[in-house]
Amino acid sequence: FNLSVAVGLLAGLLGKTTTVVEYATTTTMVTTSNTTSSVTDATSNPLAGPWKDIRLLPPYLVPYHYMVDLQPNLEPDINGKYEFNGTSNAHFHVVNTTKFIYIHSNKLDYNEVVVLDKDNKEVPITQHWLYDVNQYLIVEMQEGLVEGANYTLHTKFVGELADDLTGLYRSTYTNSHGDEVTIAVSQMQPTDARKSFPCFDEPALKATFDIFLWHKDPNFALSNMPFVMTTVRYDQYEGWKRTEFQRTFRMSTYLLAFVVSEFGYEHSSTAGTPPVQTRIYARPEQVINKNVEYAKNITPTILEYYETYFDVAYPLPKSDQIAIPDFALGGMENWGLVMYRETALLYNEAINSAYNKQRVANVIAHELTHQWFGDLITPLWWDELWLNEGFASFIEYVGTDHVEPSWRMMDQFVLIDLHDALAVDALTTSRPIVAENIETPDDINGLFDDISYSKGACIIRMIHQFTGEEAFKLGLKNYLEQFAYGPVDHKNLFVYFQAILATQGSTNPPGGFITAMDTWVLQMGYPVVNMTRDKDVSNRATVQQQRFLLDPQADITQPYNPLNYKWEVPVWYIAEGVLQKLYFVRAKARPRYFQFTVSEDSYFIGNYGAYGYYRVNYDEENWYRILNQLSVNFTVIDVKSRSQLIDDSLTLARAGQLKYEIALETTKFLRNDSDYLPWKSSLNVFKYFDQMLGRSKVYGVYSDYMMYLVEPVYNNTSSTPEGHVEKLKQGIIMDTACSYGSVECISNAENLFHAWMNNPTSNLISPDLRTVVYCQAVANGGSPEWNFVWERYQVEGDSNEKRALQNALSCSKESWILQRFLEYTLDVNLVRKQDASAMYVSLCDNEYARDLTWDFLRKEWDYIYDVYGSGFFSFSSIIESCTSHFSTDFELQELEIFKESRSDQLGSGARAVDQALEKTKTNIKWRADHEDTIFIWLTDTM
Ligand SMILES: *[C@@H]1O[C@H](CO)[C@@H](O)[C@H](O)[C@H]1NC(C)=O
Ligand SMILES: *[C@@H]1O[C@H](CO)[C@@H](O)[C@H](O)[C@H]1NC(C)=O
Ligand SMILES: *[C@@H]1O[C@H](CO)[C@@H](O)[C@H](O)[C@H]1NC(C)=O
Ligand SMILES: *[C@@H]1O[C@H](CO)[C@@H](O)[C@H](O)[C@H]1NC(C)=O
Ligand SMILES: *[C@@H]1O[C@H](CO)[C@@H](O)[C@H](O)[C@H]1NC(C)=O
Ligand SMILES: [Zn+2]
């Protein structure tokens, strides 16, 4: 699915890298791992048996078909509780005889549990019980089940239709008549299908499904497949209807989808034979306002393109996509019925920004990639989640680029995924892409991170670059065709590329493709590649690698990995203006370097085009030559490489591997560069300066420098830009100019805002500038501005616009306004719980609100812990953002005291607190080592 939930306006317009991820609360599970008891012991003790081992399900029970019949009740019972009930038949094959059936089940109560043989005769059972620790329903048979036979587990059950965003759940919204409407929707990935019906809930255990859903007028039902028929009931179920769907293909349980709603839709279809019907569903108001048009228009084009690109047909007869008012993720790739949060599917040109539009296209292109990568073929186990998310996160650029060729998506990849992954993966707390010890639902949830998504995408992009487009496509086609409807692991993928490269007679990578790729997926991190001119032979340079870690004091050999943190590194470089083809710095073979000749007076740039997943460092002489080229004529250096030079040099400096005097010089050309890419890269790395130097004597001269860089670009940016990327740029440039104090910029923002305040029914502010204008007007205004935004926030129906308003609320510089706002966040009538966490994160991004917010959170910790304590991402992101600027001994002490005093109330944020302590120490050291150098450089430069 798509994780980057709130990136919309923040990352897009403000140059911030914080990703606020909202995520469904997941049950915390206790894992007991004493699994020595055998099956026979269990008869006397229901709590001791192989089900105590959370993985795997018994390999000797293999499901092949289910019938699932669900009846969600959209009216509460007399206690105000919402419920659903259901009937299910799970058909399975017995490979080895056993007296025990165990199957996943979570938060379901059973009225009936019966086992039937192939003639539908009841097979006697001794007892059945729930083993909640591992979410199992266990059935003990009187006699062992017959080896080689088929059986059916027939159950009737009841569950809560909660508003918890998991399994089968309820979502509510207010319709155009002002009435509250309740709908039933589902979110199964990764482990919540078992919360809707008992099932063998593991990705590899694919089966076919016959789905039935009950509903009442005016609602109708949707599921993965087209409906067969709807039966109207006149018996004791009068008022109910029951819809039956076509049998699914063999698929994983986590990809099932159910919806009961009165939504509207628009439809189109692909041009193929037979055409695939594509529909976009949303609340009726959204359809009337034409907010589904954009999704409707691009979907068939993307599907057709993927069919050509993968050379494998879209397998289902229809493709539905639906926008859900309450949804934990950006999007979820359920096969044939993809679900989205509203901001990821709906777009309105008059209200929403270019960034919002880009996000819609990206998320659609991502989820549609999953219809093949994830749905048709599925990882054997969650530890290979990157085979889903890495592919979807790379191919989404290919798909979006096809429908919107002017957006420069393939360039934007560098900013969005490459730089993100390189940042996270330089920490000692990272992990290998192919994860280890993944057992509990908590473990599985933890894998939906930047490593599976962004690093996965970077590795696949690197493969694409060195195999070339044709070999890449052929490899994917073979892989998809071979493993369709089945499970896969990374070896299944690599083997095809190895074979194709062999038929092409390629000798690259030198040790073979599989060996090379293992170095990238089986160990964490990545290398820094040094390209240095030899001291004794001045026309020769040597290329070597070393693991890169951000913390200069970290041990680069830890934790132990048999691959020893050496990679098979593909190197492309430019020397004397000529691009040199592929060389490898080898992991094992000796020598572990290569050399090339270079003329004595020119420069070279490694990883040209930024296709490799690594950083590059040079000898000082070469850095100065590159700097000279940037200052004389930067346009001869590819724009992706200009971005990469900034990101590499400033990160290397932070890690103590390059002088800040040199790294800072790489930003000087920005004053003359009006391209979006290098600017966005530099704002991402300068964010650290903002956090560290916000209260230091350096801040004054640092602001002056930023103004010096941005002013000419601001003055040359059209106020009515043409073109998508220009619009993205306009937003970040205006934000930068205003934030570092441009009087002209601020008064421009204030004028635009006040014109709207004076005439609230007509908002003439360009959608691309709204986030910046609202924020600046609040930051530089007083309570009238804040109150106006607050009122609009309360009534706004468009989700993206609401986000822009929400963000602005945290921009104030007035303590009393901020304090009042913080108190509002505790009142669920004013602020929805799911929105409050993002508010704290934005508040902590504001220099003027940080301390206040952190004090407030500490004071209200009991409440905060209660609400967010068990939801992984929101809790961690609050802690992360509110401590990111900590860089003094005093702050370190405070954090230590906090950890001590709340040790039993850190929940899923415990790791984030430890990381914060670690980072604070590194920050203190960074300031001690570099603050003066930076101050002197800035003072000399300005
Ligand atoms: C596991 O069970 C064995 C045998 O009952 C017992 O001796 C041992 O202490 C148990 N280990 C744990 C970690 O509970
Ligand atoms: C739900 O429960 C009612 C009342 O027990 C029952 O009549 C109905 O058949 C159940 N529905 C399903 C789908 O099992
Ligand atoms: C399980 O069944 C398979 C296939 O029938 C057989 O080869 C294997 O020996 C059986 N294992 C046990 C433990 O009975
Ligand atoms: C069990 O069901 C599978 C799938 O329908 C079928 O292929 C197989 O023949 C059945 N086996 C027996 C023994 O009935
Ligand atoms: C790469 O360069 C850095 C900085 O000069 C140095 O610390 C490191 O040892 C070099 N690594 C290799 C493998 O040459
Ligand atoms: Zn995804």
Topology of this structure?
Elements lengths: L6 H8 L46 E12 L10 E12 L5 E5 L3 E9 L5 E2 L1 E7 L4 E6 L8 E11 L6 E8 L5 E8 L20 E9 L3 E4 L3 E6 L7 E6 L12 E4 L2 E6 L7 E6 L1 H5 L4 H19 L6 E7 L6 E2 L4 E5 H4 L8 H17 L7 E2 L6 H18 L5 H16 L16 H5 L4 H18 L1 H15 L3 E2 L1 H14 L9 H9 L5 E7 L6 E8 L21 E7 L2 E8 L8 E4 L6 E3 L8 E4 L1 H14 L5 H16 L5 H6 L10 H18 L4 H19 L7 H16 L3 H16 L11 H11 L2 H13 L3 H11 L5 H10 L8 H13 L4 H10 L1 H8 L3 H12 L5 H13 L8 H32 L1
Parallel strand pairs: 1-11, 17-18, 18-20, 21-22, 23-29
Antiparallel strand pairs: 1-2, 2-8, 3-7, 4-5, 4-8, 6-7, 9-10, 11-14, 12-15, 13-14, 16-17, 19-20, 23-24, 24-27, 25-26, 25-28
Helix pairs in contact: 3-5, 3-6, 5-6, 6-7, 6-9, 7-9, 7-14, 9-10, 10-11, 14-16, 16-18, 17-18, 17-29, 18-19, 18-20, 19-20, 20-22, 21-22, 24-25, 24-27, 27-29, 28-29
The structure holds 2-acetamido-2-deoxy-beta-D-glucopyranose (NAG) (5 copies) and zinc ion (ZN).
Task: Describe the model.
It contains 29 helices and 29 strands. Helix 7 crosses helix 9. The site of one 2-acetamido-2-deoxy-beta-D-glucopyranose (NAG) has 6 residues, from strand 1 and strand 2.
Mean pLDDT: 91
Largest sheet: 8 strands, mixed
Q: What is the tally of helical segments?
A: 29
CATH architecture of the largest domain: Sandwich
For CATH, the homologous superfamily of the largest domain is named as: tricorn interacting facor f3 domain
CATH domain class of the largest domain = Mainly Beta
Number of strands: 29
Number of structurally distinct domains: 6
Q: For the largest beta sheet, what order do the strands appear in spatially?
A: 5-4-8-2-1-11-14-13
Globally, the shape reads globular
**CA(first)-CA(last) distance:** 47 Å
Question: Gyration radius, to the nearest Å?
Answer: 29 Å
- Report the CATH topology name of the largest domain: Immunoglobulin-like
Percent in strands = 15-25%
Pick out the low-confidence regions: 3-46
Structural class: alpha+beta
**Small-molecule binders:** 2-acetamido-2-deoxy-beta-D-glucopyranose, zinc ion
Helix content class: 40-55%
